[in-house]
Amino acid sequence: MTYLIFRFYGFQTLLTDKERKEILALNTNDIKKLDNKIENLYSKYKKEFESYKSQIIDIIEYCLFNDDENLKDLKPLERLVVFYSKKNIEEYNILKYNQFNKVIKINKDISKKTEKEIIKDLKDRENNRYGIQEIYEIDNFYNLLFLELYFILQEKTYLKKCKNCGKYFLTTNSAVIYCDNVFADKKTCREIGANKVFTKNLEKDEAYNLYRKVYKKKQALAKSKGGSFEIEYNLFKAQGKDKKNAYKLKEITKEEFIKWINKQ
Ligand SMILES: [Zn+2]
User: 162 near 178, Cβ under 8 Å?
Assistant: First the structure.
């Protein structure tokens, strides 16, 4: 992850003028030379990047995965307000170099309040003591990193911690709780999760029965006629497994599952 951030996230804003000129002088067709150069720079900045990674993890843990009872009803961005107000921001240059008060505008002075008081204020929705304004100016590297984080905390993209392997992953479906990484025996965490789901009453389930019916029909056609029917059957088998798992894990509704089967 650290290396990926380094390569793709506008890292050039961190480099010295000389380093930037050296990169620009390289022939972009010479991938090897370019790779070498970037890797050299990466080793130079590695420590800094590892620090960004741990800063992001700290913030994300606090805003998304913190089980603290006091924070329970606060939205991720509201938690960020508490984090920003009460943690030592000197240690978090991602926050420090962002004009946070411009991005999230709090209508009330909270600088002298305790953590508990800020949480109480934020929870008091009727009094609407705070408002969130979306303004972002990007003129340095920290702005970019912060903006990515900001989108995650706004729940436009969901950052989840896999219930099976514990690793972070991104999804656009808030119902997803397992990642798609292969965990063991060629099975992904999501498949493992779906297999754990109670399936006793599945035979009585209309969506599942419809799925079985279509499955058997396609299988028989593939066997007797082959060719394109076989291709179609294999496609259905692969996609169907995924949809069936999604249905079992309640990532999609019964209606969505049936709609998909009927389209096949
Ligand atoms: Zn996982």
Answer: yes
Cα 129 versus chain centre, distance: 30
Query: What gap in Å lies between CA 189 and CA 9, rounded to an integer?
Result: 29
Q: Tell me, in angstroms, the distance from the centre of ligand 1 to residue 124's CA.
A: 36
Interval 61-114: pLDDT, tens: 998 899 888 888 888 888 888 888 877 778 888 887 776 655 665 656 777 888
Rounded distance between C-alpha atoms, residue 116 and residue 40, angstroms: 46
Q: Can you point out the beta strands (E) in 14-167?
A: 158-161
How many angstroms is it from 202 CA to the middle of ligand 1? 25
Q: What spacing in Å lies between the alpha carbon of 66 and ligand 1's midpoint?
A: 19
Summarize pLDDT for 118-159 with one digit per residue, the tens. Answer: 888 777 766 555 555 555 566 677 777 777 777 777 777 788
CA of 159 relative to ligand 1 center, distance in Å: 13
From the CA of 264, how far away is ligand 1's center (Å)? Answer: 29
Reference 87, options 125, 108, 118, 64; nearest CA is 118
Q: Look at residue 7 in the predicted model and tell me its pLDDT.
A: 52
For residue 61, the CA-to-ligand 1 centroid distance in Å is 17
pLDDT at 73: 84
CA of 191 to the centre of ligand 1 (A): 10
* Residue whose C-alpha is closest to residue 172's, from 77, 251, 57, 241: 251
Quote the ligand 1 centre to 185 CA distance (angstroms).
Answer: 13
Q: Specify the 3-state DSSP secondary structure of 148.
A: helix
- Percent of the chain with pLDDT strictly greater than 90: 17
